[in-house]
From TrEMBL:
Pfam families: Aminotran_4. NCBIfam families: ilvE_I (TIGR01122), PRK06606.1 (NF005146). Its EC number is 2.6.1.42. Belongs to the class-IV pyridoxal-phosphate-dependent aminotransferase family. Pathway: Amino-acid biosynthesis; L-valine biosynthesis; L-valine from pyruvate: step 4/4; Amino-acid biosynthesis; L-leucine biosynthesis; L-leucine from 3-methyl-2-oxobutanoate: step 4/4; Amino-acid biosynthesis; L-isoleucine biosynthesis; L-isoleucine from 2-oxobutanoate: step 4/4. It comes from Arthrobacter ginkgonis. InterPro entries: Aminotrans_IV, Aminotrans_IV_CS, Aminotransferase-like, B_amino_transI, BCAT-like_C, BCAT-like_N, Class-IV_PLP-Dep_Aminotrnsfr. It comes from the Bacteria. Coiled coil: none annotated. Acts on leucine, isoleucine and valine. Keywords: Amino-acid biosynthesis, Aminotransferase, Branched-chain amino acid biosynthesis, Pyridoxal phosphate, Transferase. This is Branched-chain-amino-acid aminotransferase.
Amino acid sequence: AAPGVRYLLHDGELVDYADARLHVLSTTLKYGVGVFEGFRAYWSEDDQQLYAFRVEDHMKRLVESMKVVEIEGPRDTAALTEQLLGLIRANGLRGNLHMRAQVFVDSSDGKPEDTGPSTVFMAAIPMGNYFGTSGLHVQISSWARLSDRSMPPRVKSIANYQNGRLALLEARRNGYDATLLLTENGHVAEGAGYNVFMVRQGRLCTPPVTESILEGITRDSVLHLARTELGIDVDIRPIDRTELYSADEVFVCGSAAEVNHVASVDRTVIGDGTAGETTRHLQRLYRQAVIGRVAADRNWATPVYPG
Ligand code: PMP
């Protein structure tokens, strides 16, 4: 069990950590049918409060994922949000957290075409930073990012993660920290758990959602922060691999990954290898946004405990 975590949530009911189980013959385990979300909550020492970041937006994507890969299950995002916040409170967690919501198909004799019955698990686990701050050394993968013609990359289907996993294993084997995958057409897509941005020729750029990417919530937050807080307009356009080599800044972002700078791509150093100015501004803004200090009008940061 994770330290300090007594309960998980199974179909809205608190269960002991050790008792959250799925049968070995369920469709999810046999055929990889399932969807999930990963989100974070941040403890503010100043406010003595825990803030959960964009929980309902994640729950909306969970519902969209269920719809796209045809899984029955709850569609009430407000109720799902309340369940997750209730789980954190039940565990009395006061510190930075990573949360998961997972929808599995729990049939007794799993068939690939099963759409239900589904079962929902949620977890909230203490978590520090995912990446360090020293900059990531990234390899462009020889694996292509899966495309919407084969698997839907825009949603969080568990089966999609084999693609990023192979790319990450390849990168690690070759001595890199992280990976970026190209689309079938050779454009920059995303990494195994994060979207990507670059600053090149003075413009902040990121691939459009039609370039085989997960429609990242951190990506969306960064776009909003860049536009409203920094007054930058962002180019949402296809990006070539060699544009990254000659970029002034490259950073990746995700709920777990946060906003992290890329020091090199295929051993080509980006800028001087340290986090560039735009990256640093966006990192600072993101850290403030997750505890409701910036972009407060968006109501992204939900206080977990009564004030
Ligand atoms: N791409 C992939 C493949 C991911 O798994 C993630 C993490 N959920 C992201 C991008 C970033 O998405 P988000 O900002 O919504 O966490």
